[in-house]
Amino acid sequence: MPENCPTCGRRYDDLGSTDYTAGKTATSVWTYGRIAKSKGRFYPQIAKALARAGHPLTDEELLCRTDCQANGIRARRGEMQQAGLVIRTGGTAPTRSGQKADTWRLTSLGLSYFYSLP
Prior knowledge:
Helix content is 42%, strand content 14%.
């Protein structure tokens, strides 16, 4: 993986996968188990990107902060939305092409999931 994102130039975070349930509370294990289905390896990356940004992000901004593919980021973020982990803020931000894109943030359940990650 390149050191910097070719799209935005930001550094990639080291967000490798591990056993997210080791040494966690029953609530954390339940939260992780609820969302970590077959495609769950990107959920931690998306949650970490949203939490670390300190402000809502567009799908394009999430793409720059994770190692997901463009179509995968939308699908995983959509699954996280259905699971109650992320929510559309109602705001927009411009994309590289100048179009307006919805912005997303973690819900309280999403934050609980984030804090359960190693």
